[in-house]
Specification:
Blueprint: E1 12-14, E2 19-23, E3 28-29, H1 31-37, E4 44-48, E5 53-54, E6 63-65, H2 89-110
Antiparallel strand pairs: 1-6, 2-3, 2-4, 4-5
Length: 120
């Protein structure tokens, strides 16, 4: 299930460098300190020191992802599963055969008859 980008993600960055985290006991921590301390994400609250308010996360125009995974609607591309298509060995062989024929024709056109190639 695709999820929205969260300021507690290690790849989330504030372009204003205004992101801080406030723990339940009132400590103010930088994002680097939160990741170094391995704090529980539910025990910290993201805070924007630039707006002096809660961080709005992906809705902020200064939100960025260092993995370039922040989609325009705020979804994290790292949480989206991609569909993989597996081809059979016969289909792979046909694809390589077509590629081989194209290369062989190009080499014939270039006059590669005297080259020591096993293609012609």
């Amino acid at each position: 299930m695709p999820r929205k980008c969260d300021p507690r993600c290690p790849y989330f960055r504030c372009l204003k460098k205004a992101l801080k985290f406030i723990t339940k006991d009132g400590r103010i921590l930088s994002p680097r300190a939160v990741s170094a301390l391995n704090l529980d994400p539910s025990s910290v609250e993201a805070w924007c020191t630039w707006a002096n308010d809660k961080c709005s996360g992906y809705r902020c125009k200064y939100a960025n992802c260092i993995k370039h995974a922040l989609l325009p609607d705020g979804t994290c591309a790292l949480s989206v599963r991609t569909r993989t298509v597996s081809r059979s060995i016969e289909e792979e062989a046909k694809a390589y055969e077509k590629e081989y024929m194209v290369l062989r024709d190009k080499l014939k056109h270039l006059g590669a008859k005297e080259l020591d190639l096993d293609l012609i």
